[in-house]
Input
Amino acid sequence: MTLKKDTIKYLPLTAKYFSQVITLANSVHGDGYLDDEKIVEWTNKGIVNNINCSFVALLDDQVIGFRSTYSANQWQIDQWCSPDLWQVDSQHCCYFKCNTVDEKYRGLGIGKQLLQLAIKAAQHQGAQAGISHLWKQSPNNSAVSYFSKCGGKLIKSHPDKWNEESKQGYNCILCGHDCHCEAAEMIIHF
Output
């Protein structure tokens, strides 16, 4: 598909787009991945000093992609994180929660542009790096490949990262309600 770059608009993620983002997220990642409560929580974690780190990509007012990012100090470091390997103080790391592009529009640089916007916003908030857990079972491992091309470095692999969420209602598109997909913990230094 050929689209002119100026055809796609990129805007901060706001409540106006929540419904479309939830629909896109659940169609790509599996039912139960995102809901009304989670989208509000995710978006609020990305706003500091009126700077929003989460964005949508729009084509004719239709959401065709989104990036959810948590601001530094707005997310919990858990057992799936390896801050001793990050080479930057965890207080200065944002968290790239989710990047999703509609299948029909992949390969057009939308994910990269959403990430660049999130990085710029996070930098304005004071972040020096961003952590993410990328889905290694994505088609052709495209999630890890895209993040690596954008400067991401592998920190550690985490089997069964989403298993607990799958037992609480998330229906993985590959594993169902007993997800054993592996996450690649990766970092981008700004």
Observations:
- The mean pLDDT is 93.
- Helices lie at 18-29, 36-44, 110-125, 142-149, 163-167.
